[in-house]
Amino acid sequence: MLYVIIILSAIIAFVLEEFLFRTANKKKILDNPGGRRLHKGAIPRVGGWAFFVVIAFMTLLIIPLFHEYTPEDMKELLPFLFGTGCLFIVGVVDDVEELGSNIKFGFQILASIPMVAKIYGFKLLEGSPETGFTIGFDIFDLLKCCLMGFFIIWMINSINLIDGIDGLSGSIGVMMMLPAVYLLNISYNFIIFLVWVSLLTSICVFLFYNFASGTSRRKMFMGDAGSLVMGYVIAVSMLHSWKGDISTSKYMLPICTGICIVPMLDVVVVSLTRYIEGRNPFKADLSHLHHKFLYCGLTARQSLIWIVSICLSLSTMNYFLCDYGFLTYITADTAGILVMYAILWYNKRKLSKQIKRHWDSQTGMYVEDLEAQVQQAN
């Protein structure tokens, strides 16, 4: 059954990607170069739309042919489909015509509420009409759920905002989903296992299009719809792992933490930097981690290899440190990332003495220099 799901997911994903590519070009849903967009040519930004469609198609039409849903399956699936559906809708609208950050945050909060309530058994009321109702939570339950909701939103935006060079967001998604699927305790929920396999397959299919050369007719970007859905699924898998639901392996949380901490801390560093410099923390610019690698003279592909290598190195380190506790390996990860930022800052400072920089205070970007370096490197 597993191989059937993988093959069907791959076929559906390929068909969808071809359809989306043609539709995006026809409807002009394209990512045009200019400003902070440093690619060449107009590229369709709908590649990630297939993620939710594959999940929904497999969940609602294909998997029921092989496995009868139980009430427990439905309790898990309904909040999951609701959350991914909300993010897919707002992502599609944002890809077609850009939305404000407040609207996207609102949909992210809406998507996180049912899943957090499901994972932690949060109930507003307990009892029945016969016995009467009482409040089903205390202040600590509410605080815990708020923190977990914040974590989901943090992860969603981390994956969304690091999607700045070819293959980066998709590669992180694959690295996160592989250990989750491999170490998954299938006895926990076989349906969720199959859903994650379907998503992992569709991400791999998308990377085939995303890694296409800039002159290829079939090149596509993920778009917000794909990155939002993928970030949500990764966050949900992390929360389940943290609670101990989905895996009997002690290695799953440390391995996944080593991978996701890079984009998560990148969001923190970028937001704090913008705030300290008096700029809007939510306004996009060229200050993310992959931009720092580009500024040091690396190509987009070289930057991708470096960031992926760092994620894998931290994940491997966590594998060996997991016996010493969560605080130990999270501290080691943070220290490693700070060292990386220090090296990048030193190289940037050294390079700035050799290359004349132009700071555009309106856009918050080193526009001329970074564009020139990227074009020269590519």
> Which class best fits the helix and strand makeup?
mainly alpha
User: What is the total number of structural domains?
Assistant: 2
How do the strands of the widest beta sheet line up side by side?
1-2
Average pLDDT? 81
Describe the main β-sheet briefly.
Answer: 2 strands, antiparallel
Low-confidence residue ranges:
355-378
What is the percentage of strand-forming residues? under 5%
Q: What radius of gyration results from the CA coordinates?
A: 21 Å
* Oligomer kind: single chain
Strand count: 4
Short key terms for the protein model shown above:
single chain, 378 residues, mainly alpha, 2 domains, two-stranded antiparallel ribbon, 13 helices
Provide an overview of this structure:
It is a single chain. The protein folds into two domains: 1-246, no CATH class; 250-378, no CATH class. The protein has helices at residues 2-27, 49-66, 71-96, 101-120, 139-161, 168-182, 190-210, 223-243, 252-276, 289-295, 300-321, 326-352, 367-377, and strands at residues 30-31, 43-44, 125-128, 132-135. The protein is globular and about 60 Å long. By secondary structure, the protein is mainly alpha-helical. α4 (101-120) packs parallel to α8 (223-243). Mean pLDDT is 81; it is low at 355-378.
